[in-house]
Design the sequence.
């Protein structure tokens, strides 16, 4: 049976993607050499469109990786000798921290209580901190960090670089590129594309740090070190045979976004988020998990289901709407609903109507 996916990734394909996939097949793009001039142009086009949708300055560098998780590892390897600091408010921010430990660094962190904003006054950030790591939109909990808080922390530690995971919010995020040195996302969330491609955007300060580590004899990785990625990116190439289809589709989806207007997409996302939060606010049993409206994610709406989420999820599934369960320990007490550009107002209204008709246990 056909269904509409509201899973927070992989999610519903952006409506134009099937057409772009067929086009890629028809034009034989998938048989192009990744060293050909045609591929170089394709790659250059996608890089340009990414910069536009992310409102990034011209002097940043865009690297293609296998996933967003890979971006976490590459950032740690290339910008941290010893100490990163992580704002941990869910599973993905925790993973970033864990990766730093696994790479033999000495990361520190500030934990937030589940669903609560950070108590920044409690952060003990060491003076030798080299990298501050934020997850702009914590997909596991439906909570976001505000740009002002990132700015504030950077002001207190001006020598540290700043890395921001924007996996489940890009391009619906206003990044302040004056303070962000590394940002990354994968394509199966808001970009509504097939999984298997990560995008990492870095500035010259991040590259310089990587160079310094390399000179010191510290390992910055091999084929996907910043040095190696930069060398190839300069001529719109990648060190390895890349995900050509993914790079093509991302470029096309970015073009579609730009045609609609990024501001229009952002505004629509906020309107849709308000629809969902207002509905759960008024619901007798199911409530928004994140109480503070300023901290609520606009792209992944998480609600508490005290009587269990399984029955709700399976009822909706019978009607062709697939929504997410809670993440990790919240598997059966939360539902998660993706609010991505691929989701129309009608889709969301339908999900809301279905949930409102359910007889939900307390
Ligand atoms: C999905 C997600 C990731 C991981 O993305 P992959 O493409 O699976 O590596 C990382 N961070 C956040 C916030 C996510 O939502």
Sequence:
């Amino acid at each position: 049976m056909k269904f509409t996916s509201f899973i927070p990734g992989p999610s519903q394909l952006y409506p134009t993607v099937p057409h772009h996939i067929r086009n890629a097949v028809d034009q034989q793009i998938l048989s192009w050499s990744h060293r050909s001039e045609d591929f170089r142009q394709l790659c250059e086009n996608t890089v340009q469109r990414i910069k536009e949708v992310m409102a990034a300055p011209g002097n940043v560098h865009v690297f293609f990786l296998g996933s967003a998780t890979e971006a976490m590892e590459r950032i740690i390897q290339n910008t941290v000798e010893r100490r990163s600091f992580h704002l941990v408010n869910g599973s993905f921010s925790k993973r970033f921290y864990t990766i730093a430990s696994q790479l033999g660094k000495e990361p520190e962190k500030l934990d937030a209580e589940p669903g609560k904003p950070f108590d920044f006054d409690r952060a003990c950030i060491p003076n030798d901190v080299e990298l501050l790591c934020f997850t702009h939109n914590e997909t596991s909990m439906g909570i976001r960090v505000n740009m002002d808080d990132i700015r504030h922390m950077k002001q207190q530690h001006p020598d540290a670089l700043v890395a921001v995971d924007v996996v489940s919010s890009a391009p619906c995020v206003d990044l302040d590129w004056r303070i962000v040195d590394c940002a990354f996302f994968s394509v199966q969330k808001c970009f509504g594309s097939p999984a298997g491609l990560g995008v990492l955007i870095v500035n010259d300060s991040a590259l310089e740090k990587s160079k310094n580590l390399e000179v010191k004899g510290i390992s910055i990785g091999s084929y996907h070190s910043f040095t190696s990625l930069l060398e190839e990116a300069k001529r719109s190439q990648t060190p390895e045979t890349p995900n050509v289809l993914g790079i093509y589709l991302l470029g096309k989806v970015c073009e579609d976004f730009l045609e609609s207007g990024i501001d229009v997409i952002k505004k629509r996302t906020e309107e849709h988020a308000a629809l969902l939060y207002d509905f759960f606010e008024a619901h007798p049993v199911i409530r928004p998990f994140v109480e503070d409206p300023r901290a609520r994610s606009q792209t992944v709406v998480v609600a508490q289901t005290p009587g269990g989420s399984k029955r709700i999820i399976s009822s909706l599934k019978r009607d062709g709407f697939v929504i997410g369960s809670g993440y990790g320990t919240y598997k059966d007490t939360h539902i998660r609903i993706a609010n991505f550009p691929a989701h129309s107002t009608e889709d969301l209204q339908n999900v809301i109507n279905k949930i409102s008709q359910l007889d939900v246990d307390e």
